[in-house]
Amino acid sequence: LVWVLVLSLAWLGPALGGEEEDGEVVAEEEEEDEVLSDELGEEDGVLVLHEHNFARALSEHQLLLVEFYAPWCGHCQRLAPAFAQAAAVLRDESSPARLGKVDATAQTALANEFGITSYPTLKLFRNGNRTHPLAYTGRMDAKGIVRWMQRRAGPSATLLQDASTAAAFVSSQDLVVVGFFKDLESEAAQVFYEVAGEVVDMPFGVAEAAEVFEAYELSADTVCLFKKFDEGRTDFPVDPVRGLDAAELTQLLRVQRLELVLEFTNETSDQIFGANIPHHMLLFLNKSSSAQLELRDGFRAAAGTFRGKVLFVVVDVAGYGADVLSFFGLTPADAPTMRLVKMDNNRKYQMDQDVFSDTAIRTFVQAVLDGKVKPRLLSAEPPEDWDTRPVKILVGKTFEQVAYDETKNVFVKFYAPWCSHCQAMAAAWEELGERYKDHEDIVIAELDATANELENITISGFPTLHYFPAGPGRKMVEYKSARDVETFSKFLENGGTLPEEPPAVSEVPPAPGPGTPTHARVAP
């Protein structure tokens, strides 16, 4: 999602990707002549694995988390220090869990065996089982890796044997989950343990003693979320017929664990984007203004109506949120103002009301959910010479007239300024523009998709290339072939078609998983 990506860039800096210098590749080639044994070597406390020692590693380690990486992958390089730090923490705890790594570009047999299609990919191997590794689902940092492995090395939930133990557990942290089950061997209890193993950023407890049920005024199996904010406790009764559904319970916990209104900060960003809530309602204000701070009361009053459907977030335009203002086409002087973002397609909706009462906010949000409000689309201003260059510079407000000109065949590159793959193909695109600048019916163009939005086209990866053929019908063909001038030309000369070819590598914004970095795709 683009707003996730832009916000991520605010604290992560420009996205990295692409290949490194050839020196690393040469070094790998020189090492190919080494005779590999089944000895288990280490680098920074991480096991170095290959096809000759992989089986031994599985047999000697009950829990083995393996990173499949590529030496040139920027995301792998950034993960390496955290991975080594996590390995050290687990070793110091005398944990049965170990970490290992496989260079998937050199160990192609292992990469093929485990279906590695992107870097980095992490898989957990249990008890020597080679056929059914578990995909890693935690955060890509040292703390997240350690927590995820600890949950798998020990019990996922603490047994609360009596009321006093339960009370101490509930008060121990700001947020805890307790499953009350009259039979800890029941199917519902097993689902609870499964969820506890996955949701590693909250402590889980479990109780079956009658006195604990009585202490919390429960008579049937129930999952309770205890929190030291908002309403204090949220109960999820177990349906006696349906039981517990792991995905449903996980999502309920992720939603209900959040404060009703969150301020966008470095500490809350993972919660905001990891909650998987489809709409975000944003209040942009300047916290140094007492008058603007008072708007939070009406904002909070409206939030409860849409819990689980819309996440309400306050953005300080003079603080941490300043770096994302340009993404919304805002400046600090525009505060206070509100925007609702649909996270699936990045459409943004502006609340035009002058009065930000809770009633006005509810009315606006409901109107957007009902499809009664049109999105507000960003557009940069076109350069004065935008249509005289070999490559035409399109913006949101000029796109329609150029791309859907029925007398022209228009080839458009949608790019992001920070995208390394876009930068790598920039020269080829300019050369293509020079080659076709005198063709009356062919237009080569480009559009910065981070500064311009289109009503019916959503760009999810960079670069994306679309061909708009001449004629009626507003047709669009996505180009997925090699990114060189000759192949581009062949595509244009053949009227927007080419024999089927493998897609090239794209840089794609991260999924809204918590803390997960962008993966580098592996071209088939």
From TrEMBL:
Gene3D superfamilies, A to Z: Glutaredoxin
Disulphide linkage map: 73-76, 419-422
Source species, domain of life: Eukaryota
EC number, as in UniProt: 5.3.4.1
Cell location: Endoplasmic reticulum lumen
Pfam families found in the cross-reference section: Thioredoxin, Thioredoxin_6
Catalyzed reactions: Catalyzes the rearrangement of -S-S- bonds in proteins
GO molecular function annotation: protein disulfide isomerase activity
Enzyme class of the recorded protein, top EC level: isomerase
Name this protein carries in UniProt: protein disulfide-isomerase
Lineage of producing organism: Eukaryota, Metazoa, Chordata, Craniata, Vertebrata
